[in-house]
C-alpha cells in the first residue's frame, strides 16, 4: 500500500509545472490575501472577473475592488461595481372576488441581485491579443496577463442518440448520446485544450381538456367554433346540436430543465483519459491495481496535444440523462383517436459543445485541481504536505487565463413522444 501511495504522490507532483508563484492548497494560515480568478474568452460579449480575499474557511468576496482591463498594453475598461442581474419571477397568491370568492392569481415580480465579488467586463479582444487584468482593493493590488491562443477551426462533430431504458421504463435508467469530435491541432507548439458540454432539456406534457365557452363569454355555436379554430390547439367538435357544440382540445405544460455542466463519460477516449488507465503489479500481495483510474479524475475535462501534436484530435465521449417522467397523468383519449399522437409526454434534448484552446497556465491549474478534488489527495497530503497549486497572479493569489472558444449546437432528441406498452398516457 505504501508503494501505491508513493506513486500517486509522485504523479500529482509531476503534473505541475515549474512555477515561481506556487500557492499551497492549504490556506489556513494565509488570510486576507487578495485573489484574482478569471478565465476570459476571446471574442465574447461579456467576461467575468472574480475578486476575493483568503480566509480560514471560505473566500470572502470583495465588493470595493477596482478592475482594469488592458489589451495590448492599452487600458480599455475600468469597472468598480459588482455585477448585477435583473430577472422577473412569477408568484401565486390568493385574492377574494365578490363574484367567484377566493381565487389564485399569478403576478410578476422583478428582482435585481448583486453577485458579490464578481465584476463584468464588456470589452472584446481577439486571438493573439495580450490581455492584462489589474485589481486593487484597499492597500493591495494584483495583476495577471495572458495571450489569447489560436482558435480551433472547423471541428467535425457527429452524434448518435442511443435509447436506453429510461423513457421505456419510466425513468429507471438513463438515456445516452455518443458524441465524436475531431479537429486539427492549432499549432506545431505545445497546445492545451478543454471540452465542455452543456445540456438543455425540455419536457412537454399534454392532455385532452374540455373547453368552457362561458369563461370567454361565448354563447352561439358559430362563435365557439370560430374561437376554437383560431385559439385552441387541435380542437375537436363533438355533440353538435342545433344550438351548441362541445369542444375538446390539447392542453400543454412545458417544463425547461437546464443542466449547467454535463459530466460526460470519456473513458473510451485515450486523449481525455491520458494518465488514468495505467496498471501496475503490487509486489507485496501479487495483485494487480489500477493506478489513479478510480481516484484522480479529469473533472475539468482538460487535455494536451501530446497524443496528436501537429495532427488531428479524435475524441469520443458519452453523455446521458435520466428523464423525470414518474407521476405524469393524462386524460383518456379513447373517445378521440384523432388526438392520440398529440397526447402524452414529449422530450427534447439539446446540447452545446464548447471546444476551448486554453493557456498552459490554465491547463496545469485545472490539472492540479483535478488532483486536489480527488480521494487520493487526502492520503498523499498526510505524508507529502500540501499540494502546490500553480498561480500566475502577481502580488496575490488565484489563477488567470485567456482562451478561445468554438461552439457547436447539437439536437440530440427532438420532440420524442413517450409511449408505454402501446398506450398513450
Descriptors for this entry?
425 residues; disordered N terminus
Structure description:
- The protein is mainly beta and 425 residues long.
- It has one domain (2-417).
- It is 11% helix and 45% strand.
- It is built from 4 helices and 23 strands.
- The chain has helices at 2-14, 221-231, 360-372, 376-384; strands spanning 22-24, 34-41, 47-53, 60-61, 66-71, 74-79, 84-97, 101-114, 118-121, 130-137, 140-147, 156-162, 175-184, 192-210, 236-238, 246-259, 279-282, 287-290, 302-304, 312-321, 344-358, 388-390, 397-417.
- Strands 2, 3, 4, 9, 14, 15, 16, 19, 21 and 23 form a 10-stranded mixed sheet that branches. A 4-stranded antiparallel sheet has the order 6-5-10-11, with no helix packed on it.
- Helix 1 (2-14) crosses helix 4 (376-384).
- Mean pLDDT is 79; it is low at 1-28, 168-172, 277-294, 326-331 and 420-425.
Order of helices and strands: HEEEEEEEEEEEEEEHEEEEEEEHHEE
Helical run tally: 4
Unreliable spans: 1-28, 168-172, 277-294, 326-331, 420-425
> How many runs of DSSP E, i.e. beta strands?
23
Q: How big is the Rg?
A: 28 Å
The number of distinct structural domains comes to: 1
Global mean pLDDT? 79
Largest sheet: 10 strands, mixed
Give the % helix: 10-25%
**Oligomeric state of the chains?**
single chain
In short:
With 425 residues, this protein is mainly β. It is built from four helices and 23 strands.
Describe how the helices and strands are arranged:
Blueprint lengths: L1 H13 L7 E3 L9 E8 L5 E7 L6 E2 L4 E6 L2 E6 L4 E14 L3 E14 L3 E4 L8 E8 L2 E8 L8 E7 L12 E10 L7 E19 L10 H11 L4 E3 L7 E14 L19 E4 L4 E4 L11 E3 L7 E10 L22 E15 L1 H13 L3 H9 L3 E3 L6 E21 L8
Parallel strand pairs: 2-23
Antiparallel strand pairs: 1-22, 2-3, 3-4, 3-9, 5-6, 5-10, 7-8, 10-11, 12-13, 13-20, 14-16, 14-19, 14-21, 15-16, 17-18, 21-23
